[in-house]
UniProtKB/TrEMBL annotation, chain A:
MF (Gene Ontology): dipeptide transmembrane transporter activity
Record bears the keyword rRNA processing: no
Cross-referenced PANTHER family: DIPEPTIDE TRANSPORT SYSTEM PERMEASE PROTEIN DPPB-RELATED
Origin species: Paragemmobacter aquarius
Cell compartments where the protein resides: Cell membrane
Protein name, UniProt field: Peptide ABC transporter permease
Membrane-crossing residue ranges in chain numbering: 9-30, 95-123, 135-163, 195-218, 264-287, 307-328
Start and end residues of each ABC transmembrane type-1 domain: 96-321
GO cellular component: plasma membrane
Main location: membrane
Keywords per UniProt: Cell membrane, Membrane, Plasmid, Transmembrane, Transmembrane helix, Transport
Name of a matching Pfam family: BPD_transp_1_N
Origin: domain of life: Bacteria
Protein family: Belongs to the binding-protein-dependent transport system permease family.
From TrEMBL, chain B:
Gene3D superfamilies xrefs: Dipeptide-binding Protein, Domain 1, Dipeptide-binding Protein, Domain 3, Periplasmic binding protein-like II
Lineage top rank: taxon: Bacteria
Protein name as catalogued: ABC transporter substrate-binding protein
Species, as recorded: Paragemmobacter aquarius
A cellular component annotation (GO) from this entry: ATP-binding cassette (ABC) transporter complex
PANTHER family: D,D-DIPEPTIDE-BINDING PERIPLASMIC PROTEIN DDPA-RELATED, PERIPLASMIC BINDING COMPONENT OF ABC TRANSPORTER
GO biological process: one example: dipeptide transport
Family statement: Belongs to the bacterial solute-binding protein 5 family.
Keywords, in A-Z order: Plasmid, Signal
Compartments in which it is found: Periplasm
């Protein structure tokens, strides 16, 4: 197991370096110059342009700039935002809990609904339930998040008035950040109704964010279950008269979960992509919205370091998924 | 005691910071300069007229080079958990506020790594201001390098907000200078309470405010970048006022019995700038002919959905010195065709640049360009529409020898005609890096602007600008498109909101019915 973990870790090093190259080049391949965007329609004299470019360090050779960037990274310095002038890491850490909270809720919803639906669809293969749920999954998978989010807001907030429109908590509540997780902080604050308000604000965005992963998980669970249920040992268990509940629960599900766990892990990347849109629609102050704003403003340091931090995170999650996979299925370890 | 009145504003963007000097975005000023700070002079609410602010009165020397400001006495600085002022606002604060922006030696010039003062620089303050002296605690004298008529309007702009020197000194001593940007202290109508990045800003009424006290107790900015969501929040009474509704929603807002909407012609202009240095666009007759070939009203109807007035002058009709006597080039394709023939222009093919972003002065440049393309094809001119990413667009459009006519526009900073005409059309700005995208340099026109700039008398200036607009129309460096209307939807319960022609959002006169 230790060798397995070690080999996985070793594999991360070149991947991470590769990502630094991509993150660094990405912002520089994009057309548009941060100095000019700062000046906007106003124009900027060539002298002032040169002065600002030099001040930002963008007049140097691009390779040198890259090594500067890498060097600073090794010292834990992710640079400062060109717009707010604040350290990228500080901003990331302020906004990160909001995204995690939203992402966790979404993945919980997606798993709690997706897995049972998938199992049920597999057990009743070809039934109306199977057909309806799998069609719904297909629709969910191809749903444009922006449109879907707005639709839910208009229906549930606008017409029915059941849920708040956007934000993390009613503006009536005001308390300091302790953990950055609104559900926890609202409880700590001890204010009446704060937790309920935070929870009600979470419903729509997490449902929107859960839509695609839910669809993927349901379909994956269904096909994994079908595969497993065709295996000899399941048929044997059945033949031996084991109750269906035990067959499914103990034998089939456990084995079917191996690819499903991987799928759930892989959905983390999808979640981050989805969070970018979801956070923008729901004014959810997380890293997704922050990245979108920074790309449009050519805030180089934020985009490159932000991408790195997110990529690092996805890598970490994938590592955990691999390890869990190794735990559930020992055969993976000896390859 | 009555319950505290809370007013929630669904703002469109997160502020870049709370120090108004280093930033340029309107959303930042709405969150910093307007609620928290004051300036020596202020724009009278709802107008572009200059009125006394922290300066009670001023005297201008006969040559227009010296401005002596008498400062208001007894103006209290706000306090916070970490700072309690020991003195009132005085001349030291004024000198500090300007010096830190213009003087590279000032320790506050770079109090945060990479900070720059773009507005101070682009308003040419470093070249303009020769010295600022403290005459006594409540008198400050500015000496200029040349007379500058718009000066009083310039220093009413957000970048010229007065910050506390005592607070700055305390922060420097504590080793936390960046708190000037994070935990602002000002003299304005509202005190900063807290900011949660990208989510919410909270302010409280400044009980010691020197001016008329605000009618609301708490002011909250709920940061909501999406226009459709802002409208939903307004309808759900999660906020009471919002900026920038989507044009498509205007009708629905008007129909909603719980909402009302203020509207006003914006202080802006959208235009198509020819490259007047390149044949055949160096011939004013060709430019005029093209102008006559384009159906302006159709653009206003289709692109602005009527939320604009057709533009004939480069400055909007709400601005003083607007010359209403100027006749716009009539839409007349037949005459246009003839003029082109007379100018010897045949089978002309040209490029029209369409900007990739929406701006208050231009909701959809691509559509505008397409309408122009259609109109021009009727007079035998073929048009290719091109576009670039926004940063690229700004850069390439100002390169000398640029191929094609560019759609762009401008929103005024300070309500002075000079801020439109000199910036966009003078010979000085026709050079590299200038904002004169027509590269149009007309000596007579520029001379009028220069004369107006150094004249203090507004009636005199008005005459000069009126003449300048006549030359502009004759020479036609632009096809002037439109001045767009600005809409501010709000709850029925809101009263006392005054729309600013400069596009600012201020809440010190706002009240809300329970």
């Amino acid at each position: 197991m230790i060798r397995f973990i070690f080999s996985k870790l070793l594999y991360l090093v070149p991947t991470f370096l590769g990502i630094t190259v991509i993150a660094f080049s990405f912002v520089r391949i994009l057309p548009g110059d941060p100095v000019l965007l700062m000046a906007g329609e106003r124009g900027v004299t060539p002298e002032r342009h040169a002065q600002l470019t030099a001040q930002l360090g963008y007049d140097k050779n691009i390779v040198l700039q890259y090594f500067d960037f890498l060097g600073r990274l090794f010292h834990g310095d992710f640079g400062n935002s060109l717009v707010t002038k604040k350290p990228v890491l500080t901003e990331f850490l302020t906004l990160f809990p909001a995204t995690v909270e939203l992402g966790l809720c979404a993945i919980i919803i997606a798993t709690l609904i997706g897995v049972p639906v998938g199992v049920l669809a597999a057990m009743r293969r070809g039934s109306w339930f199977d057909q309806v749920s799998m069609t719904a999954a297909l629709v969910g998978f191809s749903m444009p998040i922006f449109w879907w989010g707005l639709l839910l807001i208009i229906f549930f907030s606008g017409i029915l008035g059941w849920t708040p429109v956007s934000g993390r908590i009613s503006l009536m509540f005001f308390f300091p950040d302790v953990t950055g997780f609104m559900l926890i902080d609202s409880l700590i604050s001890g204010q009446d109704g704060a937790f309920a308000s935070a929870l009600s604000h979470l419903i729509l965005p997490s449902v929107v964010l859960a839509t695609i992963p839910l669809a993927v998980i349901a379909r994956q669970t269904r096909s994994a279950m079908l595969e497993v249920m065709g295996e000899d040992y399941v048929r044997t268990a059945r033949a031996k008269g084991m109750p269906p509940f035990r067959v499914i629960g103990i034998h089939a599900l456990r084995n079917a979960m191996v690819p499903v766990v991987t799928t759930i892990g892989l959905q983390i990347g999808v979640l981050i992509a989805g969070a970018i849109l979801t956070e923008t629609i729901f004014s959810w102050p997380g890293i997704g919205k922050w990245m979108i704003d920074s790309i449009s403003r050519r805030d180089y340091p934020v985009v490159q370091s932000g991408l790195l931090l997110i990529a690092g995170l996805v890598m970490l999650v994938n590592l955990l998924v691999d390890l869990t996979y190794g735990l559930i299925n020992p055969r993976i370890r000896v390859k | 005691m009555a319950e505290a009145k809370t007013f929630v504003y669904c703002s469109e963007a997160s502020p870049e910071g709370f120090d108004p000097a280093p930033y340029t975005a309107g959303g930042t000023f709405d969150a910093s300069a307007h609620p928290i700070y004051n300036r020596l002079t202020e724009f009278k609410q709802g107008t572009t007229e200059v009125e006394p602010g922290l300066a009670e009165s001023w005297e201008v020397s006969a040559d227009g080079m010296e401005y002596t400001f008498k400062l208001r006495q007894g103006v209290k600085w706000q306090s916070s958990d970490t700072f309690t002022p020991t003195r009132d606002f005085n001349a030291d604060d004024v000198i500090f506020s300007y010096d830190r922006q213009g003087n590279a030696e000032n320790p506050w010039h770079q109090y945060i790594a990479g900070i720059t003062y773009e507005y101070y620089t682009s308003m040419a303050m470093p070249e303009l201001i020769k010295s600022i002296e403290k005459v006594d605690d409540y008198t400050v004298k500015f000496t200029l390098n040349q007379p500058e008529a718009p000066f009083l309007a310039n220093i009413a702009m957000p970048f010229a907000s007065i910050v506390s020197k005592e607070y700055a000194d305390a922060l420097m001593a504590a080793g936390t200078p960046e708190d000037l940007n994070n935990l602002p202290i000002g003299t304005g109508p509202f005190k900063f309470v807290a900011y949660q990045k990208d989510a919410v800003i909270r302010y409280q009424k400044n009980a010691d405010y020197w001016g008329t006290a605000p009618l609301i107790d708490d002011l909250v900015f709920a940061i909501t970048p999406d226009a459709a969501v802002r409208l939903q929040k307004l309808k759900a009474n999660e906020c009471q006022l919002m900026p920038y509704p989507a044009p498509a929603d205007i009708e629905a807002i008007k129909a909603d019995p719980n909402l009302k909407m203020d509207e006003q012609a914006g202080l802006n202009v959208g235009y198509l700038a020819y490259n007047t240095t390149m044949a055949p666009f160096d011939n004013p007759n060709v430019r005029k002919a093209l102008n006559m070939a384009i159906n302006k009203q159709a653009i206003v109807d289709a692109v602005f959905q009527g939320a604009a007035v057709p533009a004939k002058n480069p400055i909007p009709p709400t601005m003083w010195s607007y010359n209403d006597a100027v006749q716009d080039d009539a839409y007349d394709p037949e005459a246009a065709k003839k003029m082109l023939e007379e100018a010897g222009v045949k089978d002309l093919s040209m490029k029209i640049w369409a900007m990739p972003v929406q701006r208050p002065y231009m909701p959809n440049a691509r559509r505008t360009a397409e309408l122009m393309q259609e109109d021009l094809s009727k007079v035998g001119v073929s048009v290719e529409i091109i576009s670039y990413e926004w940063g690229e667009y700004l850069q390439k459009s100002m390169e000398a020898g640029r191929d094609g006519a560019v759609i762009l526009g401008w929103t005024g900073d300070n309500g002075d005609p000079d801020n439109f005409l000199s910036v966009l059309l003078s010979c000085t700005s026709a050079g590299e890096g200038g904002a004169n995208r027509a590269f149009w340099c007309n000596e007579d026109f520029s001379k009028l602007l220069q004369d107006a700039k150094v004249t203090a008398d507004q009636a005199e200036r008005t005459k000069l600008y009126e003449q300048a607009q006549v030359i502009f129309k004759e020479q036609a460096p632009w096809f002037t498109i439109a001045h767009s209307t600005q809409y501010v939807p709000m709850s029925n319960k809101v009263s006392g909101f005054k729309m600013s022609p400069l596009g600012d959002f201020t809440f010190d006169t706002v009240d809300i019915a329970e």
